[in-house]
Amino acid sequence: MTRGSTLPAHRLSHLSGRLAIPAQTRTSPAPLLDGFNTAPAEEAHHALLTCLRSLRWARRLADHRPYPTLDALLAASDEAAYDLTPGDLAEALAGETLPPLPEDAYGAAHMALSAAHAAYEARFGHVFVICLDAVPAAESLDRALEAIRSRLTNDPEDERVIAAEELRRLARQRLTDVLRDAGL
Prior knowledge:
Blueprint: H1 31-38, H2 41-49, H3 55-63, H4 70-82, H5 86-94, H6 107-124, H7 137-151, H8 156-182
């Protein structure tokens, strides 16, 4: 087989020794990510389980290290959370506890929230989860009560989807906090 004529290579003498396509430089991950990326697998796994009590989620994130950026880690966290099976979701929900009420909350608020949580658990079989990361602390109690009352009317399958999304958001928030606070 014969090849057709080719154009001669262009010589750019003024760029001698330079690459036509700049080499991609890889910046090092944020310092908070360095510790996580280099931590022993068991330590990383344990830290991840404090964010979301799903063995599959934690193992998946720990096994796919290193992450080049925090955004890459958070994207992987989201993807792993979206892939939770119903059993994984049940495992993660079983590991959740009720969030503490602000110390300055009045007694009636404690009773209202306790009653709402009891009704929720009786209806859905697991603890109520909600991510309030963007909510000012002064509004968190009201927002939680409003959400739990609203979600009590959900169909169990619809609530499972909402609870999974709230767990994903909680895991994302907790992961960022753990890395920042623990220096991992």
